[in-house]
Design a protein that fits this description.
Blueprint lengths: L14 H12 L3 H8 L3 H13 L4 H14 L13 H21 L4 E6 L4 E7 L5 E8 H9 L3 E2 L6 E6 L1 H24 L31 H6 L12 H16 L30 H17 L3 H10 L4 H8 L6 H26 L1
Length: about 350
């Protein structure tokens, strides 16, 4: 154990976990760690014991094993001089994914399900009689990090463990939202184009006073809230098929933001803009380019008016009242137009599926 070489542990790893790994993987004594940290040995001992008790959680245990293998392996001496830029990218990726998953877990009835021996986890939302709907997919390494940071918790681990967002997770979500908005504001105010925030879509060509940001602070999308409302016949105002269509557009929109440079000006799809003008060539990853193409085709198919409300409510997560105000509509008319837009969007995806089948 003494021969292990410890690399710098990622910044997202909690302090207690860092000290636990320093003690168990490198053999450092508790008193030595306490002297380095400038605290009493009993403080370090409590942190180590707490982490040890949490290893009954499969995600926490897997996270600690992965960190031990990656940062405390004998082979680490050959990687000790690796560029720090990789750590920065890993940190940005974690923050971006944490923001995405925690926001999904804030939706009513949502849990993160992890099965044994699977490399991905899924966020599913209970939709009552309709069953459960998958709303997000996440790499297990991200789920492990969320569990280690105690942002998600599982009451009964098993073959399929179900995690819910914790109180500290909700607090962390608020901080991530604030950080994302600060980065976006700094870039928009000072023209820091070279500082690419992982949370902010590029709004190249948009006017400064019309810069749009995704409202990550929203606990639920307007579609989820509307799906709980009932019409005069007692049926959900938005059925699960319509909600799924809107969520599919939202998922593609989020995927379209991933990459070092996003040249899409989504405001061009709002009323009065030049529709469909965007540059998806050579910027970002191919997956991001494909997602931008899918969003653009869907919004163009919806046409003026319907694409406005779909973009605002499904993608920007604007509330209906705000969307009505910005578009100059009468009160309570937005939900009707939104339902029509979702019906058209659902048909667009069905037609797209048929075309894909014919090509295939």
């Amino acid at each position: 154990m003494e021969n292990n070489v410890a690399l710098a542990v990622p910044a997202w790893v909690p302090e207690g976990a860092q000290r636990y790994l320093a003690h168990t993987e490198t053999g450092r004594s508790i008193r030595d760690i306490a002297r380095s940290a400038g605290c009493h040995a009993s403080t370090i001992l409590r942190q180590i014991r707490r982490i040890e008790t949490r290893r009954d959680d499969p995600l926490v245990d897997a996270a600690l094993q992965s960190l031990a293998e990656t940062h405390f392996s004998v082979a680490n001496d050959r990687r000790a001089l690796s560029p720090q830029i990789n750590e920065t990218r890993e940190e940005e990726e974690f923050e971006r994914e944490a923001l995405r998953i925690l926001r999904r877990l804030c939706e009513t009835g949502s849990v993160l399900a992890v099965a044994e021996d699977m490399d991905k986890a899924v966020v599913v939302r209970d939709t009552g009689e309709a069953g459960a709907t998958r709303t997000a997919v996440v790499e297990c390494k991200i789920a492990q990090a969320l569990a280690l940071k105690d942002w998600i918790s599982c009451d009964n681990p098993g073959r399929i463990s179900r995690y819910r967002i914790s109180t500290s997770g909700r607090t962390a979500l608020s901080l991530l939202v604030a950080e994302a908005e600060n980065k976006a504001r700094a870039r928009n105010e000072f023209g820091m184009a070279e500082v690419q925030s992982p949370f902010q879509a590029n709004t190249s060509g948009a006017q400064p006073d019309r810069v749009r940001r995704m409202r990550y602070s929203a606990a639920e999308s307007p579609l989820i809230a509307l799906s709980r409302r009932r019409d005069r016949d007692g049926k959900p105002f938005l059925d699960e098929a319509l909600v799924s269509a809107g969520e599919r557009l939202r998922e593609d929109f989020e995927l379209a933001q991933i990459g070092p440079q996003v040249a899409q000006n989504w405001d061009s799809f709002l009323t009065g803009g030049t529709r469909g003008s965007f540059d998806s060539a050579s910027h970002g990853r191919q997956g991001s380019s494909d997602a931008r193409d899918r969003v653009a085709r869907a919004l163009c198919d919806l046409g003026p008016g319907l694409s406005d409300v779909a973009l605002r409510c499904c993608c920007y997560l604007e509330g209906l009242e705000l969307a009505e105000k910005r578009m100059g509509w009468s009160a309570r008319s937005g939900k009707i137009v939104l339902r029509i837009a979702l019906q058209r969007l659902k048909r667009h995806y069905e037609d797209q599926a048929e075309r894909d089948c014919m090509i295939g």
